[in-house]
């Protein structure tokens, strides 16, 4: 069983920064995707940033966050981070991390096997 736990959410002024963390525990061998999704008020869950690890890592971002968000893994591949700079009020929402072993479409929520409980981000307006 794999467990994910997010942390690092909070309230910031527009233009501010936050770094979210997603700790992974349990059986974690093999290639994987880890992706941050967010659910903004009144909208469906959307993928914002993903990282795939086989022997090395590669990242992908939603257009809405390119240049502002950076996803990364720690050396042990047990923690995923999402550094968010230049935050805007429309970035407000609950951010979830997800992990999957066989992900065909990184932006589909149903491609992932495990989810964290979410951490709330509020960008004041």
Question: Can you describe this structure in just a few lines?
Answer:
The protein is mostly beta strands and 125 residues long.
Overview of this protein structure:
By secondary structure, the chain is an all-beta fold. 0% of the residues lie in helices and 52% in strands. The chain contains no helices and eleven strands. Strands 2, 4, 5, 6, 9, 10 and 11 form a seven-stranded mixed β-sheet that branches. A four-stranded antiparallel β-sheet has the order 1-3-8-7, with no helix packed on it. Strand 4 (32-39) and strand 5 (46-53) form a beta hairpin. The model has no long low-confidence stretch (mean pLDDT 95).
* Structural class based on helices, strands and sheet pairing: mainly beta
* Cα radius of gyration in angstroms: 14 Å
Helices and strands, in N-to-C order?
EEEEEEEEEEE
Low-pLDDT regions: none
Shape: globular
> Main sheet?
7 strands, mixed
Q: What's the total count of β strands?
A: 11
Distance between the termini: 40 Å
Strand content: over 45%
Mean pLDDT: 95
Work out the helix count.
0
Percent helix? under 10%
What's the structural blueprint in terms of helices and strands?
Elements: E1 2-7, E2 10-12, E3 18-26, E4 32-39, E5 46-53, E6 57-61, E7 69-73, E8 79-84, E9 93-100, E10 114-115, E11 119-123
Parallel strand pairs: 2-11
Antiparallel strand pairs: 1-3, 3-8, 4-5, 4-9, 5-6, 7-8, 9-10, 9-11
Question: How would you describe this structure in keywords?
Answer:
125 residues, 7-stranded mixed sheet, 4-stranded antiparallel sheet, 11 strands, 0% helix, 52% strand
């Amino acid at each position: 069983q794999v467990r994910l736990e997010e942390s690092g959410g909070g309230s910031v002024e527009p233009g501010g920064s936050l770094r979210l963390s997603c700790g992974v525990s349990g059986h974690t061998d093999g290639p994987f995707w880890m992706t941050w999704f967010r659910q903004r008020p009144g909208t469906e869950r959307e993928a914002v940033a993903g990282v795939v690890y086989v022997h090395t890592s590669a990242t992908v971002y939603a257009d809405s966050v390119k240049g502002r968000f950076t996803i990364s893994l720690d050396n042990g591949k047990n923690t995923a981070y999402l550094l968010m700079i230049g935050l805007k009020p429309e970035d407000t929402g609950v951010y979830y991390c997800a992990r999957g072993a066989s992900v065909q479409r990184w932006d589909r929520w149903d491609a992932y096997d495990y989810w964290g409980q979410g951490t709330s981000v509020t960008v004041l307006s």
